[in-house]
Amino acid sequence: MKKLFSAVLFSLFLSSAWAQCTSTEQDKAGVTAACQDYIQAFYKADTTLAYRSVHPLLQKRGFSYSAANQTYSKQLEMPFPALVSLAKRWNANGKQANEKSVQDVQILDICDKTASAKVTAVWGIDYIHLVKEQDKWWVMNVLWQSVPAQSK
């Protein structure tokens, strides 16, 4: 019985130690800033914001909804060069988004090296994984979908 109690106590200690991620206000600000740069790169058609906060090894995957077909696309993939190209032209005419467009960043978790956030923008929802390199937060992975079908 004593061994069982010790094993349970030890496993509780390990699970609570592993599950704890602490973050500083500086980390929260860095994650938010990287996510805002990601959004604003598209909204402002400003690729310097993508270069500032999106990692060159970015992997972006997602699904676009077709109202005409009432279905989602197959998985679409976008590496960093394609993101820069799209950001340059997506809102170049200013008709896709403006300063009043939704640009919500919800931080889901921050650890010392990794973080995750949910971004809501005019195009839909993006779940973002970030990595901290040399005290700077970078958008590394994005999983997205267009505005949910039930919202349309």
TrEMBL record:
Segment forming the signal sequence: 1-19
Domain of life: Bacteria
SUPFAM superfamilies per record: NTF2-like
Residue ranges that the Swiss-Prot or TrEMBL entry lists as coiled coil: none
InterPro entries: FrzH/put_lumazine-bd (IPR039437), NTF2-like_dom_sf (IPR032710)
Xref: Pfam families: Lumazine_bd_2
Keywords: Signal
Name of this protein: Nuclear transport factor 2 family protein
Classification lineage: Bacteria, Pseudomonadati, Bacteroidota, Cytophagia, Cytophagales
